[in-house]
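User: Okay, second chain of the day. Same drill as before: sequence in, structure tokens out.
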Amino acid sequence: MIVIKIKAPIECLSEEIDRFVKLVGEAGQIELSKQELKRRAARAELLAFFYETLDGLVGVGAIKVPKSTHRDEVFRKAKSELESQSKLYEIELGWIAVRIGFQNKGIGRTIVSALLERVKGRKIYATTHDDNAGMIHLLQCTLAFHQSGEPYKCRQKKCLLFVKN
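Assistant: Same drill. Structure tokens below.
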């Protein structure tokens, strides 16, 4: 049996936040300490948890509320044609992580679709590394996000900015 729970962080038990942070950390896409990720997760608008009865938590995702300075920097670095309108994108899709062994089974798509349903009608953006073909395909082909701007340097890799109106 599959269960998807979507909650505001304030509704989550401490153990749920800890499991969320652990799974995001295991995915290796975020270069933050567990404490910092936990602090940021507490500021998110929504957290999603994908459970399989026998295996427990196998996937997570979030609707983040980025600081305006971070958001504006992303749009600027990407040289987005929407840079002057970046303030309209108040939420960010992110921290999508699926446990190894459960990837490529539609779990990420299910998590993201459930989150987007909850914020329907709002402008949202997402970023991903330029070598994350699965997420790029999901954002562009399945979820109707479009790339804005060009690849930009983020930490040790190149990132892409995607927006959905």
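The first strand starts at residue 2 and ends at 7.

User: Thanks, on to the next one.
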